[in-house]
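Q: Please design a sequence for this.
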């Protein structure tokens, strides 16, 4: 089917309980319901489709990935690789790193260790950057159109107003999480949450990577040999869950939520189904009408 805004989707079921998750990185289908006199008289699960051209005139059609879930998946995979390397190599009681106790050629040993360190750094930095980007994507997608954020500098008598575009571009992620998301999702203070300190560390790790002042400054790599970096990379999930739970309690669902934070399998629901908003354009057996 195609909606009036020209977005294509496949009807993958009638009721949410019939749906089986194929991959947690995909967008959730939206449950469109027709309600009359307080009763559901019609229902369908519509999952968004995208079609991309490939060379030589071919094209591929697929279910839309969830932006946040894909970023989290990359981070989790890299974090898993980093943890595995840390336990196997750096944290292993059988490994000796003191040069005075190494019997093999010292230069050969240093080269071998340094190669492993570089592999480890790559995994950690990938995990950090993608974890942070997942949170930033989630924050930006959470801001509704028409939302305004006001700041006031009382000493200078200046009041500034930011719309959605300005918030996304100019305000820090920490401010978005601390104030804007809290207001949007109507939650308690985020500074009281256990994950707040880990998030602050994640932002610091990320900024050290992105805003490097000189190529010769590599001291921040030393932070990666503390297990606090693992906890920082794991914080996006509890953060998104925190806002998700506040969101779900108000019986509001949104397509931006990834399956990864959704143990109860809440679906985005449209209770204002209108058949005039949809057009049948084909099926999976005969293809899509051009």
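A: Design:
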């Amino acid at each position: 089917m195609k909606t009036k805004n020209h977005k294509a989707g496949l009807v993958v079921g009638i009721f949410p309980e019939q749906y089986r998750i194929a991959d947690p990185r995909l967008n959730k289908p939206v449950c469109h319901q027709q309600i009359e006199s307080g009763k559901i008289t019609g229902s369908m699960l519509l999952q968004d489709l995208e079609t991309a051209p490939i060379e030589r005139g071919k094209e591929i059609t697929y279910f839309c990935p969830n932006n946040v879930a894909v970023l989290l998946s990359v981070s989790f995979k890299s974090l898993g690789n980093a943890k595995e390397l840390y336990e196997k190599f750096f944290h292993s009681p059988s490994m000796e790193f003191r040069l005075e106790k190494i019997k093999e050629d010292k230069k050969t040993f240093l080269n071998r260790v340094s190669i492993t360190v570089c592999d480890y750094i790559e995994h950690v930095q990938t995990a950090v950057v993608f974890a942070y980007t997942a949170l930033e994507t989630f924050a930006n997608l959470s801001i509704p159109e028409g939302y305004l954020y006001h700041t006031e500098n009382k000493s200078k008598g200046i009041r500034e107003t930011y719309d959605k575009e300005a918030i996304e571009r100019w305000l820090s992620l920490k401010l978005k999480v601390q104030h804007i998301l809290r207001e949007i999702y109507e939650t308690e203070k985020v500074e009281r949450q256990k994950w707040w300190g880990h998030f602050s560390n994640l932002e610091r790790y990320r900024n050290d990577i992105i805003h490097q002042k000189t190529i010769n400054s590599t001291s921040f790599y030393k932070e990666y040999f503390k297990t606090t970096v693992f906890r920082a990379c794991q914080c996006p999930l509890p953060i998104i869950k925190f806002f998700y739970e506040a969101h779900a309690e108000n019986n509001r669902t949104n397509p931006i939520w990834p399956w990864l934070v959704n143990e109860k399998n809440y679906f985005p629901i449209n209770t204002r189904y209108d058949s005039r908003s949809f057009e049948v354009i084909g099926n999976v057996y005969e293809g899509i009408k051009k």
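Q: Thanks. Anything notable?
A: The chain has a mean pLDDT of 88. Residues 106-142 form the longest helix (37 residues).
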